[in-house]
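new request in #modeling-help
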Amino acid sequence: DMPVTQSPSSLSAYVGDRVTITCRTSQSIGTYLNWYQHKPGKAPKLLMSRASNLQSGVPSRFSGSGSGTHFTLTISSLQPEDFATYYCQLGYSAVYTFGQGTKLEIK
Amino acid sequence: QMQLVESGGGVVQPGGSLRLSCSASGFDFKIYNMHWIRQAPGKGLEWLTVMSYDETHKHYADSVKGRFTISRDNSKNMLFLQMNSLTTEDTALYHCGKEGFDCWGQGTLVIVSS
């Protein structure tokens, strides 16, 4: 299994803040990386595919970037409904490893 | 509307077996690869296994290789996960997911305990 390093593991921020979450892989995966939002009691929600493709219905304050081994998810202006846990995930060569998760909490 | 519904979870003793099912609707199941993913209590998401749409390819995470077996029945829009030699480390909420991960089920809870 290919490891994925996601950081930070937790993050406290105010409504309106800009936040960035990072994922790094040990080998180049092109842009085969997804981002998810996960709230307690709900199924994870796909936010971004192929590193930067915003899924239908996801607000434009979410953006993704990166390729190769370094990827970022940015939320430009946090809203109350954005407080959740976020995961990155590889989608490369039948390897679908998730990052460790970033718990985003209200400050 | 795409929907996945898991079933078959429950309490099982260490060393035991369990078979999970996932019923799909709202999309053409037979043309999509399908996955199983789990989340242990207080832990993150863990991808487990994928089966190709035509059943010719399967891949497993190292943590379940040799113990878990994925299968499907395209005539019934069903996905399965046979879990053997269960340990307490397998206690988790088990989700099925569609290729592309744009549709997930709510999950079925498996508790391995004596």
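bot summary: Chain B touches chain A through 19 residues (CB under 8 Å).
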